[in-house]
């Protein structure tokens, strides 16, 4: 997805309040906050991240190409801002060998019909905890696909990775999530 | 990658496995889809992998609304305020650090702590219980501190200052301009607007220079007092306060009560 600068004026007007761009952009605040919370895992950091995202978005509204996906554009800003935050904080995600994690988590998983296993009263809190326990790259990819319903191409643009990497992370992330949820179920049984 | 039984995957599985997600999500090209469908018919391991991915995918989709956490009304208001504020903010001489929203939150605990100290002093240290007296004490202490340390050189621009305020706090502050009502008060110059915490909540602290002396106007976005102006003298400072409409105003001056008369009329007319 390419966001090209358009000839002015294409951003919000001086008041901004009734501008379609502004109205649509603000309609995604819950989605952005939910995603920011999954990324940062701390509510104050998530609020900062969303505020910074909107500040940048409104300032750069002239760069948004009308007719393209505004939600995806905002999420791209959110992810770029998050990466910068992490860089400045000196906290970088630890690279995880997903195959090792996946194998380790698969140990002890019961042989059951997968649909039946998860369909039986999996709690939102279990899902939330299992998601938050995933390594960042996988958590991000699975959330963007399965909760926010972005396409692979949109996710690739947001996180700055090839589509093949996105596909692999979604796939492995889902399996890791399954293994974690299966263990929760086994523990509760 | 191993199968669920621990046996190594065949080369066909290695080719198929990375494509399972795209197959499930409907993003695989037609050729790949046909290949995957043929393979999973004969491979229990990949069929099981696909079933696990599908189970998670469907569980997440089904619980989507429960998993999402809504933004607070405060956050929504702040984000909405950026839309109105941004064009003016970029044209103003504010540094990026000055408008960085997250900086607000970093300073908030200090303001709250200062307010708590003042509140404790008001209630326990001096035995004050009346809202007006507590407000007078807190604002006078803040005025003394700010007039010594926080008065910038030169006048503040009321338009951009009001825009910044709304963007940061989410409620409007109507600062009079030279072209608006009430007419400019001789010798009155707005120097800065800062946020201040008192026991009644966050207030706007408008720091003025008035006839060469510092003067503060505090605006609280709710009614806490009566309409009639109340005067309190503390620490050689004169404080006058009242509620008007849905706001409460407090003026603190080191000048005499006579000097406050015109300022009361000015603030009542401005209605910030």
What does this structure look like?
The complex is a heterodimer of chains A (189) and B (272). With 189 residues, chain A is mainly alpha-helical. Chain A contains 10 helices and no strands. In chain A, helix 2 packs across helix 3 (43-59), helix 4 runs parallel beside helix 9 and helix 7 packs across helix 10 (163-188). Chain A is elongated, with a radius of gyration of 19 Å. With 272 residues, chain B is α+β, with helices and mostly antiparallel strands. Chain B contains 11 helices and 6 strands. Chain B has helices at residues 11-16, 20-24, 30-42, 44-62, 64-67, 73-91, 96-99, 102-125, 131-149, 158-169, 257-270; strands at residues 188-198, 201-210, 213-220, 230-234, 237-244, 247-253. In chain B, a hairpin with a 2-residue loop joins strand 2 and strand 3 (213-220). Chain B is rod-shaped and about 95 Å long. The chains are: A mainly alpha (189), B alpha+beta (272). At the A-B interface, helix 1, helix 2, helix 3, helix 5 and helix 6 of A face helix 2, helix 4, helix 5 and helix 6 of B.
Which helices and strands appear, and what pairs or packs with what?
The complex is a heterodimer of chains A (189) and B (272).
Chain A: H1 20-26, H2 29-40, H3 43-59, H4 70-89, H5 98-106, H6 114-119, H7 124-133, H8 136-147, H9 152-159, H10 163-188
Helix pairs in contact in A: 2-3, 2-4, 3-4, 4-9, 5-10, 7-10, 8-10, 9-10
Chain B: H1 11-16, H2 20-24, H3 30-42, H4 44-62, H5 64-67, H6 73-91, H7 96-99, H8 102-125, H9 131-149, H10 158-169, E1 188-198, E2 201-210, E3 213-220, E4 230-234, E5 237-244, E6 247-253, H11 257-270
Antiparallel strand pairs in B: 1-2, 2-3, 3-6, 4-5, 5-6
Helix pairs in contact in B: 3-4, 6-10, 8-9
